């Protein structure tokens, strides 16, 4: 049973993107931010939306950010524009130009490049996992969202959103007016949709077995499909009848897709955000072992809160499979939030309208 399956309960998101695509083709571009926990199908939805847009006559530009990129500057632009992004290699026009001023110039050049592309036809710009993108790419996408309303360009960006991993309020839309971005959060699978997936894989499964699988899937599409994949292989190798018999422990499925997904989810909990080099060793350790290593010791005791109360002791315990919305594991890696952007806005704030 393959893990790649049709999307479940994502018709509302596809309808939203089709409507926004229609507006973009008419010259009123915008930004749609697809947020969701690990395993909720952000990447699959973005792929389906890109195919939908291509079928409607839009040119699709794609970028997928991974922690392995190491925070390389302008990584998103290099993926979107390919060889045309070589203009970023040009040195500063004048001696003594500060790095910040040079980045603003590079951002203006990229904006003009996007305008050039848009004059040739409507664009669907897909950026997956923007939470791992470098700071320069994130700033450029944020500024582009402020300007794209006059172009036939739809920006569609996916972002991990889990309150037990990410600090609230520091996503890509932080600082953007609600009028400039439409945020759509992917909800966990409903119990009914999850039960339908189980019955599709095991038509003869008893109600109790179906309920067990739904509970083990925790509303997470990737986790549930991995479990059903393992159960299919498990029963086939045992020459048993097609029943969704759930083992007592995860170890009974090892090696299999379900333990792999749990390990991958744990690795995502410590994956570096926005190219933070300090997080890479811990992320690589989880990728190798499937366990979350202890946070590095700094030798300093955190200051007590000003309320006068003693801070609670950290909770210990093993990480568990993610529940609905991506919860379940307790030992979350600390994540530092990027400081707010200050200073004057770039000189490329005014777009050249097309059409």
Distance between the first and last residues' Cα: 48 Å
Q: What is the overall number of helices?
A: 10
* Topology pattern, helix = H, strand = E: HEHEHHEHEEHHHHH
Show unreliable segments: 274-293, 295-299, 314-347
Mean pLDDT: 77
Side by side, the strands of the main sheet go 2-3-4-1-5
Total strand segments: 5
Structural class: alpha/beta
Please explain how this structure is put together.
It is built from ten helices and five strands. By secondary structure, it is of the alpha/beta class. Helix 6 crosses helix 7 (207-217), helix 7 (207-217) packs across helix 8 (221-237) and helix 9 (257-269) packs antiparallel against helix 10. The radius of gyration is 23 Å and the shape is elongated. The termini are far apart. Mean pLDDT is 77; it is low at 274-293, 295-299 and 314-347.
List keywords for this structure.
alpha/beta, 10 helices, elongated, 355 residues, 37% helix, 5 strands
In short:
Helices cover 37% and strands 9% of the residues. It is an alpha/beta fold and 355 residues long. Strand 3, helix 5 (135-147) and strand 4 form a beta-alpha-beta unit.
Task: Outline the fold blueprint.
Layout (H helix, E strand, L loop, with lengths): L10 H15 L4 E7 L5 H14 L3 E6 L10 H7 L17 H22 L2 E6 L6 H13 L5 E8 L20 E5 L5 H11 L5 H11 L3 H17 L19 H13 L10 H10 L66
Parallel strand pairs: 1-4, 1-5, 2-3, 3-4
Helix pairs in contact: 1-2, 6-7, 6-8, 7-8, 8-9, 9-10
